[in-house]
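A note on notation is needed here, since sequence and fold are reported together in a single record. The reader may check this reading against the record printed directly beneath this paragraph.
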Amino acid sequence: MYKNDYLLVPTDNASWHKSKDLKIPENITLFYIPAYTPEMNPIEQVWKEVRKDDFKNTLFNSLNDVIDKLSISLMNLTNDTIKSVCGREWIVSLF
């Protein structure tokens, strides 16, 4: 699906992320964040951004309503927003 892209994938130090049997394509690089540091995980920053703007003080009538709202929220995130919440110097230096 992303064969023409270079992917930098953050992972925790779970043993299955370091398995010798894991076959990682050439265009993917895994990097490891320290245990118990969600503030270093880029996706946690994305969730924080989504919750801040679109889920604060919101009551949903169904799980489908939550899914719909989340889908819209994620689609509305701009590249600039993603860069601003995930573009930490230590991440950018990995490229």
Remarks:
- The chain has four helices and two strands.
- The CA atoms of residues 12 and 33 lie 5 Å apart.
